[in-house]
Amino acid sequence: MEEDVAKINDNYLKLKAGYLFPEIGRRVRAFAAANPEAKVIRLGIGDVTQPLTPTILKAFHDAVDDLATENSFMGYGPEQGYDFLIDAIIEKSYKPLGVDLKTTEMFISDGSKCDCANILDIFALDNTVAIGDPVYPVYNDTNVMIGRTGDADDKGYYKGLVYMPCTEENGFFPAYPKEKVDMIYLCFPNNPTGAVATKEQLKGWVDYALANDSIILFDAAYEAFITDPSIPHSIYEVEGAKKCAIEFRSFSKTAGFTGVRCGLVVVPEELEGTTSTGEKYSFNKLWLRRQTTKFNGASYPVQKAAAAVYTEQGWKETQANIDYYMENARIIREGLTAAGLTVYGGVNAPYIWLKTPAGLTSWDFFDKLLNDCHVVGTPGSGFGPSGEGYFRLSAFGNRDNVVEAVERIKKNFKK
Amino acid sequence: MEEDVAKINDNYLKLKAGYLFPEIGRRVRAFAAANPEAKVIRLGIGDVTQPLTPTILKAFHDAVDDLATENSFMGYGPEQGYDFLIDAIIEKSYKPLGVDLKTTEMFISDGSKCDCANILDIFALDNTVAIGDPVYPVYNDTNVMIGRTGDADDKGYYKGLVYMPCTEENGFFPAYPKEKVDMIYLCFPNNPTGAVATKEQLKGWVDYALANDSIILFDAAYEAFITDPSIPHSIYEVEGAKKCAIEFRSFSKTAGFTGVRCGLVVVPEELEGTTSTGEKYSFNKLWLRRQTTKFNGASYPVQKAAAAVYTEQGWKETQANIDYYMENARIIREGLTAAGLTVYGGVNAPYIWLKTPAGLTSWDFFDKLLNDCHVVGTPGSGFGPSGEGYFRLSAFGNRDNVVEAVERIKKNFKK
């Protein structure tokens, strides 16, 4: 009877190793156990450190209070999110970019990781997918888990996915794939490299997608960290993008919501795919059906807190936190440069992408940084084969810690 | 080039109609627009009405305050949930049943709908699935969406799924399928019929699953409404269930969290499936990988609020809300019986399942109840073909509304 036991989704077994961050966690715990006196500074996982702002906190508390009386109680909300939040985002965050969106084109969620992963549900499995290399591991791993790939080769490339190397040589900006691809993940400002895309560069991708009938999955989780007014915050700033792009945004880094959980997806009504019989069909309708059936909406008090980000005072406070992190980025970037390291990113983006010195592998550098400086970062190779020889530091730390980490690195690495 | 556009997941097109509750919403909105003076009482969707209890509110506020200072700030938490919540549930809600669970066997989520839907990710597509009829539509629809079925027939049965009719004739308790099935959804106390399973009945299913190498997906979302001490709250009260069952629970109805969002899944370490090469593999490991890659944990303040349910005072208050709803159930059940209607459920379960009178279809009865009594319920046929001729009323209303709804029904239906 053995052979009749319920079968597992075998695709999971193709995944090479544990998810990157748990592995980092294991190494840091082992180091801390062996060196209990060491003050470890974490600039690795990219978790925020600054508290929610007063205006956001007040809205959060007020919404919890709504749940205290029968008259103001809020039960099931719309699975796609409350209009009060959707309309605030459209009005305050998209309209100033010249981007008009309908309420029905935006979907609020409990976070961008879920959205980036779940979006695959509405696409046929036989679409060809292109991802960056290095890349946010969720894009890669969820495509493996859903069964779009074969096994990984020795380098870590999964058969069936198209990888677009982003290296020093191409300025960390991917070249158009040579083969026809149906879905393309783009992330700008980029995690992990900190690279940004100019409007011209984004236009190139939109034109490419329109010409090749591809859909762009555009991850804009870090758009709030753009300070240069010429850099686009949304792919929809490019004409034609509504016909070829889905956009993801997150409150995690923008407003310190990593533990609070809120994100959003834009699926324009103009965006169409084809059925197996060759008819056009709306991705917006598919995503609505997906979300209403498999999701029950983000937490009501969380959505109220998120909406407060877009009040005048809320935005002022949120911007101050963003400025704080971007000053951290400057300190890291300039400090590491002064230490003789080659450093990318950290401008218009909260990640610093450094070249490991002396030919060290990414994990060797991780261990060296942890052992010598008691600083935790993220090995570039964890983001893909082309990340080997690079290392990510996050600007989301506490200022004193950032300054101390940079001092320790300077002391250790300066020739 | 048309034929090269990214392809959609065609399986979505097999879905017969919109999800049940949006359709109810549309009809109610149309009625309200045409009859603006009518006081419509909603006993349909099964949303709770009573506020969060004081102890839960306090914990919720305290956790929001944790996010107000850098020292107490909580960012990314464990994707599988905080130990403070998992351990409280195990200690206060499972141990008293004689069920021992490890911390690593429980996974906290943003709601049971998501869990019931997402669990399919870790199973191979070629497993055969059995579901009740009538049934919580999510079990059916998510199996269609993931591609496990063919089209629906005229009755609404999807080819490839095994349906287990639950009717007056079998006491709303499913018979074992004649064909070999790999996965079986069971829900007790049942949504929508309000039927409960005795320990002997559950033991029958566990023994069946063990003998036939099936996995039971046990939905215990309504276990808190059981008042009869002989009725099991968890399938793990039956010996051997850890080898064959995954259990889902929710805070939605138990503690009024429909808008707050928190649920949980238990995936025992002993539970194994097989790989395509016939080796055993742990479902617990697969679910951990799924959650760490595709989910980022439930909101921290929400988990703190949920943990407060299990404090002594929190549980006393929560139990008072449950008693309130169960008194509603009694009023509906007895009132409808007095009106000459045939009524099931409403004991150990918050749903009343009534037989539509005079051979009315479920939707005819829906329209009649809405037009004549201004009361909204849920058509039984919306839960599956065997629900035709039945109708669901929920006990989650406000007491005055419940009393008034029952009076209106009595007046209209009493011979």
UniProtKB/TrEMBL annotation, chains A, B:
Gene3D superfamilies per the UniProt record, alphabetical: Aspartate Aminotransferase, domain 1 (3.90.1150.10), Type I PLP-dependent aspartate aminotransferase-like (Major domain) (3.40.640.10)
Species of the source: Geoanaerobacter pelophilus
UniProt cross-references to InterPro entries, sorted A to Z: Aminotransferase_I/II_large (IPR004839), DapL/ALD1 (IPR019942), PyrdxlP-dep_Trfase (IPR015424), PyrdxlP-dep_Trfase_major (IPR015421), PyrdxlP-dep_Trfase_small (IPR015422)
Keyword tags: Aminotransferase, Pyridoxal phosphate, Transferase
EC annotation from Swiss-Prot or TrEMBL: 2.6.1.83
Source organism superkingdom: Bacteria
Cofactor(s) recorded in Swiss-Prot or TrEMBL: pyridoxal 5'-phosphate
GO molecular function, one term: transaminase activity
Pfam families xref list: Aminotran_1_2
Name of the featured protein: LL-diaminopimelate aminotransferase
Domain Aminotransferase class I/classII large residues, every copy: 39-409
Pathway where this protein functions: Amino-acid biosynthesis; L-lysine biosynthesis via DAP pathway; LL-2,6-diaminopimelate from (S)-tetrahydrodipicolinate (aminotransferase route): step 1/1
SUPFAM superfamilies: PLP-dependent transferases
Catalytic activity field: (2S,6S)-2,6-diaminopimelate + 2-oxoglutarate = (S)-2,3,4,5-tetrahydrodipicolinate + L-glutamate + H2O + H(+)
PANTHER family xref list: AMINOTRANSFERASE
